[in-house]
Amino acid sequence: MILLRSVAPSFLLDPTISPGPDSSWCQALRQKKSLILVCREWYKVSLPLLYEDVCFRRISQLPVFLHTVESAPGELGSLVKRLSIYAFIPDNRYGAATNRYLRRLFDLCPRLTLFGYTSPCDLPPNVLIAPITTTHLVLGETVKFDTLSKLMAQLSIVLESLTFHVTAVDRGFWNTPTQSFPRLHSLLCVISPGTRKHLAALANMWTLPSLCHLTFKIIGNTINWEPRITTHDFVLFCSVHGKNLKSLHFHPEYWWSMSTYCIDIQRVVDVCSSLEHLILHPKTLPLTHPNVKWVDIWLPHVRSSCAEDWKRLYQSVNSQSFPSLVGIRVISNPLSCLFDIPRTIPPGMVNRDDEGFELEFPGIHVKHNYGHLGTIEPTWSDEGVDSGLDDDGDLYIYVSENEDEDEGECSDCNTTASDEDDTLASSTEDGTEGEENDAFFFIDEV
């Protein structure tokens, strides 16, 4: 238990956020490697921590890791629970080989339940990208609808959570037989101005009887959205699948042009009668719901131009608009890279001032006070690389000026420790910096 408390939990780590050796992902990986080198007893206890969460940021890491797992049959593979691919896969050279490697690796990892393909590069055709044991699937924007459809046909019976980008639905797939997802309870749809119209097609193609947590992530430069975002497509989707929803989340993508639009979701929540937890985009217009108990609101990114709209939204969340309201919480924008954090750290955990807590790990410092979930800004050295943190304390992204430093040194393939860049994959998360200072300045006035 002590060792578990020394390593950041997986819900605070996302290996795709930012590259660099000082990211929270790499720091957590170095921490795990340090633990297994202390002594033989610590090695036995810490080895599962090292191998349970794997990410490949370069395709060359895949055969190296496969060799490591094969060198200890039945030992290391059974420790892998989550596996993600963020690497570029050149189809003409490595597509077929990648497929072979993944098939072998999936066979060696019987406990693998979460699989992610979030590479910024197109997925080569005919590459198998999900094992049959997958219950949690995360897909990036390069996974097109035809691939998504094939995956759903394979995994729909066992999937419990799905994250995907809504892509253009080819008319040839509109007559696809309805797919049932009897166990799917959590769905995250990434929506752009050009793809939201395909939500209606998906609503009619999928049956989601167990869906209780739904997230719409609004992406794309906000100048491409109309000033008042039309939610007709969201209403169509929720009218089919929203009757059992317990939480509904409109997740923002932070652009400086966020101030140019607003979003009215009243019609969406009207068709979700069982809602208990509502997580609101900072540009949401005031709304009402009879059954919502908890309301989270993301803080705005562009404070100077969005603060007044945000304050109106915050002040509108009261017992008149929400008769069942138990509490309201604001969430700092640096945490927006962790899509599911409003549910993994639910608002009901802190109901009084004296119940607040902090989660502090290398590169991560999250603080939950009564009514506020945020991050603590780190103390930066005056020397060295530019931190990448702007004056407003926005999301820190480390970019190494030295390519060799970012790539790391080559490691050997042993079963005791593997280099973060060549076996367990040095993809990273942000430093989860945030602020407790002026980012919260206008809350005191409401």
Would you kindly provide a written description of the structure presented here, covering whatever features stand out?
This protein has 446 residues and is an alpha/beta fold. The chain is 25% helix and 17% strand. It has 12 helices and 18 strands. The chain has helices at residues 2-5, 24-36, 40-51, 61-70, 91-108, 145-155, 199-205, 232-241, 266-270, 303-316, 341-344, 403-407; strands at residues 53-56, 82-85, 114-117, 136-139, 161-165, 179-180, 186-191, 206-207, 213-218, 228-229, 247-251, 262-263, 277-280, 294-298, 327-331, 357-361, 364-369, 372-375. A 14-stranded mixed beta sheet has the order 1-2-3-4-5-7-9-11-13-14-15-18-17-16. α2 (24-36) packs antiparallel against α3 and α4 packs parallel to α5. The longest helix is centred in the N-terminal third of the chain and has 18 residues, at 91-108. The radius of gyration is 22 Å and the shape is globular. The relative contact order is 0.14. Residues 384-446 have low confidence and may be disordered.
- Shape descriptor reads globular
Count of β-strands: 18
List the secondary-structure elements in sequence, H or E: HHHEHEHEEHEEEHEEEHEEHEEHEHEEEH
Proportion of helical residues = 25-40%
Oligomer: single chain
What gyration radius follows from the Cα positions, in whole Å?
22 Å
Arrangement of strands in the largest sheet: 1-2-3-4-5-7-9-11-13-14-15-18-17-16
